[in-house]
Write a structure and sequence with these properties.
With 123 residues, the protein is mostly helical. The protein contains 5 helices and no strands. Helix 2 packs parallel to helix 5. The protein is globular and about 45 Å long. It starts with a helix and ends with a helix.
Length: 123
């Protein structure tokens, strides 16, 4: 149990730091009311998890420790689905329903597509 918590915490800490850096870079270069930094983080996180799942499958790696470190920890720390939900509530509350619906549908569809691409890349 302690080892698992350390692995998840280590991966999550690294993922969270990378998520913060992603936000800094995206907001520096793109000024928009659309929550682009979260959108990018969710897309990239889905792509990464697709690649990792494909690598684990292809290499027949069934190491629970690697999955805890990279999938549960890193990807969990990097992706920002809770921020996604809160941002959509805010968009709806501010009367930007179309933007919220675009954000929701785009995130889900591109997320699924990114996982599929990630799996495809390692086959």
């Amino acid at each position: 149990m302690t080892k698992a918590l350390v692995l998840v915490g280590l991966g999550g800490g690294i993922g969270s730091m990378l998520r913060y850096l992603t936000s800094l870079v995206v907001t520096k270069y793109f000024q928009t009311t659309f929550p682009l930094a979260t959108f990018v983080a969710n897309f990239v996180g889905c792509l990464i998890i697709g690649v990792l799942l494909g690598v684990f499958e292809r290499q027949q790696l069934s190491s629970p420790d690697l999955k805890l470190l990279f999938i549960t920890g890193f990807c969990g720390g990097y992706t920002t689905f809770s921020a996604f939900a809160a941002e959509n509530i805010s968009l709806f509350q501010s009367g930007n329903s179309f933007t919220a619906l675009l954000y929701i549908s785009g995130s889900v569809l591109l997320g699924l597509f990114a996982v599929w691409i990630g799996l495809f890349l390692v086959k």
